[in-house]
Specification:
Elements lengths: L1 H48 L8 H19 L12 H6 L8 H17 L1
């Protein structure tokens, strides 16, 4: 008897909610068709009038302004490059006919740099 009521309630559930679900799916499909037609007409008009097909959001415009301001600031704050006295091994291999300095040469350079710092 319990299985009978379970089956009966399941049938009532299907009878009540299947048409509602089917109606929702049909409305969604009709809405999708209208949106497709609207966008097709809009993009066709924009294309033949020569306007941009991409629509930019308000946030996109704000980001462009911020990026342009940052570019201007970096142009103003240009820093001279730092001379690397001891390049890494990879940079040494990339140079043609590079002769690696000996330990004494490096010590001489360091003392020259220290002396020039002390003289200033």
């Amino acid at each position: 008897m319990i299985t009978f009521f379970k089956g009966l309630l399941k049938g009532i559930f299907y009878i009540l909610f299947f048409p509602i679900g089917l109606l929702g799916i049909c409305l969604y499909a009709v809405f999708g068709i209208f949106v497709f037609i609207y966008r097709l007409i809009k993009i066709t008009i924009l294309f033949f009038t020569g306007r941009n097909l991409k629509t930019e959001l308000h946030e996109d415009e704000e980001v462009k302004k911020i990026l342009e301001a940052n570019k201007e600031e970096t142009k103003q704050d240009a820093v001279e490059p730092v001379l690397n006295l001891y390049p890494s091994d990879q940079e040494m291999y990339n140079v043609d006919n590079y002769i690696s300095p000996t330990f004494e040469d490096k010590k001489e350079e360091e003392t020259k740099v220290e002396e020039s710092d002390n003289n200033d």
